[in-house]
Design a protein that fits this description.
This protein has about 100 residues and is of the alpha+beta class. It is built from three helices and three strands.
Length: about 100
């Protein structure tokens, strides 16, 4: 029989880094490790508690999808819309230029 898990998660620093990293177990028991993106222990602790709360509320996958794992900042829907609109403008210019050159 496997030993019971004593702790929900924890914070640690990687060798040569000032950034705090967190580790915790997801709903099915798989260990997850990710950067908190901060050097402040209190802020890193809040980030860990947020992940654990999301896990317990079954919203962890949505939280992880909506978060940029490199920086830990939430991606704004306005930013995504703006980038998509910019893509459409550039695509329109390229297609328009090709049709003018071919015609």
């Amino acid at each position: 029989m496997a030993r019971p898990i004593k702790h929900d998660g924890g914070l640690y620093k990687r060798e040569g880094s000032a950034i705090w990293w967190m580790q915790y177990r997801d709903k099915i028991g798989v260990r997850q490790r990710e950067s908190t993106g901060t050097e402040d222990w209190d802020e890193a602790q809040r980030s860990l508690r947020e992940r654990l709360q999301a896990r317990d509320n079954n919203t962890l996958p949505a939280l992880r999808r909506g978060s940029d794992l490199v920086t830990g900042h939430t991606i704004s829907p306005r930013c995504c819309h703006y980038n998509f609109q910019g893509f459409l403008r550039i695509r329109g210019r390229l297609v328009g230029g090709v049709t003018q050159a071919a015609g």
